[in-house]
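Margin note: ligand = N-oxalylglycine.
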Amino acid sequence: MSPAMLVADDDERCYDETAESQYQKGVKLLCENGLHRVPKKYILPASERPSSTNTGDPNVTNRQNLQLPIIDFADLLGPKRSQVLNSLAEACQLYGFFQLVNHGIQEDVTRKMIEVSGRFFNLAFEERAKYMTPDIRAPVRYGTSFSQTRDTVFCWRDFLKLQCHPLPDFLPHWPASPVDLREVASTYAQETKHLFLALMEAILESLGIVEASQEETEKKEILKDFKDGSQIMVANYYPPCPEPDLTLGMPPHSDYGFLTLLLQDDVEGLQIHHQQHWLTVDPMPNAFVVNVGDHLEIYSNGKYKSVLHRVLVNGVKSRRSVASLHSLPFNCVVRPSPKVIDEMNPKRYKDTDFGSFLEYISTKVPKRKDFLESRKLTN
Ligand code: OGA
Ligand code: NI
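Resulting structure:
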């Protein structure tokens, strides 16, 4: 029996070592080989499945949709700035998420980015496999699941991670195929970086760390670290799944950085954990879903919250998304800003460097927000 037949077996959910090596190659390949049932490797315990409410309340469903707060970026740059800053602060406190509209990045740029990442996953497996590596610091990494070397149950997701900053260092390592990937992805990376910086300035202002009346040179100095900061883009691909209720595209997690700018196609799947419920985010055309990451939670001393989110898969359509994760340079220490700490608001988080985060994720199975929990000061 060929390995492909083994994993595709309809009558019995086979599991053996041959299949195991197949799983490492990704769900796209698995689906290409024909699949009518979800292999055991992807089946979550009942309590972790998408339909599980975990609330004990039978009236609570997990299929509710959520309209996230909407932030109009054009208004943020105009006379309504202070009003929008209030909405921004509220969104970051209550949801940890918002939809960013009128962001100024041309539709052509975002559409091409989603398209080219989709075409990457449509390449022959051998082409994608060139970028398979266990090295989490590699400039390019193709992989599957969430934490491939640690997950016992795999997620229904393949990904391509691209390190983006400084671009000239990394661009030559990015995939040469599809032929337009480097051009499209580098334009997209630069434009999202620019947008991140403008958003970050607004966030600093909303936290009272930067003031509108402050000298431009002072503002520039505060923003400099963000300008030099790390940027990683993750293109996600979630193939249709024959039994979507048994598995997840991504498990509950928070993002590590300051902000994540997420571009998704028109297929729903992203859920956020809000007031004890999993709520599905309605995709909005031409908008970015922006979320607070762990580093911003630390920096704001807990005022802004990084919120758990996960991804559902579906039986019909594949889904594509591109997440752009932004933080300080890898060698910088993230700590609560002195401007948000006083006697009433003592420091709540330990200083955190990127190295200890990487060490943490490579020694533990990342679960929920436990990295952030480990950074909390208890007294
Ligand atoms: C992520 C993420 C959500 C999605 O890449 O961290 O949460 O909808 N992605 O793909
Ligand atoms: Ni995420």
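Residues 253, 255, 309 surround nickel (II) ion (ligand 2) (CB under 6 Å).
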